[in-house]
Structures are given as C-alpha cells and as structure tokens.
Amino acid sequence: MSRRNFIKVNGITTAGIGMGLRPAWFAQKLAKFDSLRPKLAERKFTSEAVEAKIKSIKATIKDPELAWLFENCYPNTLDTTVNYSEANGRPDTFVITGDINAMWMRDSSAQVWPYLPLIKSDVRLKNVIKGVVNRQANYILIDPYANAFNFGPTGSEWDSDDTTMKPELHERKFEIDSLCYPVRLAYNYWKISGDNSFFDEQWQKAGKLIVQTFKQQQRKHDLGPYHFQRKTEVSTDTAPLGGYGNPVKPVGLICSVFRPSDDATIYPFLIPSNYFAVISLNQMAEMYRAIAKDDITAETCTALAVEVHTALQKYATAEHPLYGKVLAYEVDGFGNQLFMDDANVPSLLALPYLGAMTEQDPLYQNTRRMVLSHDNPYFFKGKAAEGIGGPHVGLNYIWPMSIIIRAITSTDKAEIKTCISWLRSTHAGTGFMHESFNKDNAADFTRKWFAWANTLFGELIIKTHQNYPEVLASNF
Fold it and tell me: Does residue 411 carry a pLDDT above 90?
C-alpha cells in the first residue's frame, strides 16, 4: 500500500490542494462539479431509493463542492464494490473493500449500513443487504477467527501466515469486531424490515459459534485455539509470544489479538471492542428469544453480556490527572492500561455511534476530550486538519474516518461544521474520502478507493441533514 498518492484528475495534478488552498485553476476545474460516479451501465448496483435520497439531500446543501462530495461518496459502495447474486434461492452479496479484492466482515457491514433506513422502500436494496447477512453467517461458520474472506476457495497472499488458514480466507487476524458487525447488521436489518427469515438454522448456528468464540477468548482455562504469526518487518502485523499476544489475567473480558485497524493489540483486552461485544450479545439474545424461541441460548448471551459489562466497569476505567475518570483503550487485567485511541471503528470516540453509551455520558465526555488532544499519541494537528490516526499508516497521518466519527458523535453545530469543512478541504481534488492524509498536506494520502470511508461520509451528511439542516444550508 503506497503512502503517497499524488493523483491526477482529468489530467490535473492535485498535489497541494488539500492544504486548505483554493487556487484559481482549481476553482475553474471544479466549477461544474461533474459527478465522478461510474457511468450508469458500469455501476455494480443501482437503487432507486438511494438515487432519490441523493437528489433530495443535494438540494439542501448550499455549498456545491460539498454537494458534489456527497453525490460521489454516499453511493460508492453500491456503485463499485457490491456483487449481488442468488445462491440456493437466497440473496448472496459479496462486498469488496475497494482497492482490495476481499470481503472484510467489518468493512462490508459498515459499507452497507447507511442504506439500511431505505430498505422498506426498495426491495432490491433490501435483498442486497440480506445477501450480506447471509454470506457473513456462512463465513462465520467457515472460520469465526478470520477477519477477511475471498469470494470462493481461491487462497490468498497470506496463506503463508502461521495460523490455520483455509482457501476461503483472505486473512485470519482475529478481531472481536469482525463478529460484532455482522450481528449489528442482521439485528438492525430485522428491526427495520420486519423480515426475520434470515435467522434460519445457518444463522442461529453461526450465532452460537460467535458466543463460543467469545468464551474461548476470555481465556479462563487456557489460551484457546487461535494463534497468529506473520513473517514481517512490521511489528503491528503479527502477534507476540507464539502468536497468542501478550498475557492477560482472566477477568471476564474478551481478548482481541488484533484491532479493527488489523494491527496487533498491545494489551489484548481491547476496550471499545468489548463494549461492542456487549451490545452484540444483547442483540443476539433478543433475536434468539423473539425469533427462534430459544430461551436457553438467549440466556447464555445475556449472561455473557452481563459478565463482560461488569468487567468493563471494574477494569476499563482510570482516574486521569487532567480529564478525570476516563476509559483506557486496552488493558490486560493485571492493572496495566493503554491510553490512546485509533481511528478505526470501534474506537473510544465511536462508542455513542455504536450505541455503547450516550454522547452526554460524563465518562464518554472525559474520554472524548482526552482522545481529541495531544494526550492521545495518535492525535495529530497540522496545516490541513486535525484528527486521529493510528499505527497502521504511521505518525502524522489523519484518518477522515476519525473526523467523520467526531462529527457524528457531536451535538455541537460549530464542531460538526468544522469537521465537515475539514473533510471538504482534504479530499485532494479527488472527490472521495481516503484512508488517511498527511496532517500538513492532504494531497499526500493513502488509498484512493476506500469505500467504507466514502459511505460513512454519506451517513454523516444525512445525519446532519436530519438533525442540523442549517449547517448544510450555510456557507463553507
């Protein structure tokens, strides 16, 4: 993955645009803000409901560049990454991340998430998302410890990793959120559509395997069946101590050997992901009880959720000398705690977005102030913008995703507008969000095709339209 991307848009080099500069030639080039979406015949999938939403939201956005960004980004997952078909008479959807031809459990869920509110008015879109739910259940049954899968049993470039690889796997880094995101998508698909037919024998079996995996990774009796090592010069790309990660004291929390960034944890009890697991377990309990009439499995889910949540209350917090009571990012149960945040979701910043706590919660507010400051080693502030990054790309690279999540979890109109302004000025003339950009020069960015960030930006604009339409109706 190249860190530096000096992209040409229709023959015009975009270097330097992202620094907040607006040279005359740039204004002329983008005066019409022509859509950068694929031609209609070349789009992977088209939804009438999504097209109607684009039209209605664009009409409320005063700034033409911002409206253009929304039109490019919001449908990007459907335009470029969705491969829909039917398998055995059931919807089946394979969703790539963008520039990597594989389906991440996390990314694929998050990529289609912003379209969920529209499925009641678009049956074809509903089937696309149901197809993601179906495929994810199948993937969990293949291997609950894998984070990314191939379309079929083709093998991958990571087959040499020291772990139990299978030909269906693209990568086998165990991340708690890889099992939470499919639950989040399935549960909310059910709640919005009223369709519970996905929760069949296969999905119920997959759900039970999720619970089993979480219990294994509590490591109460042994290290469990999962280990991972890779021959690499990048320390965050492999796990220490035989591939099991650093030691933990079994206190009820769940180990995540890797973060949602696909980087190795330092202390395996990853706090944002454990909060996410509590939510997922409670959602599964409701589905087993209401749909499957399986009270035994429902009670198992609830009991595990209570155990993990109780452990979070005891081990995840600390008294910070500047911010008061805050959440740590990772802990080990022995008393060691890591204070930072990473741009990828789940993160501490994103806890209200995931439903783990409210934006007004004092614990969240204290933690938010900490992670959006230089007391977070991965918070960067420069000429282009300010925001959170992470070890995955390196120092001084801000992830647009963190700016988006900051805005989504804010109730301050001024802060939301500032975040949107940063996103508007750091796309480097490409018309899309990126994985990350240099804090001092947004033309120096990673991943020109990262569908999750694009669709998440669309979600931010829609939420802003719903809650603070005056922000979109103002000048930028």
Answer: yes
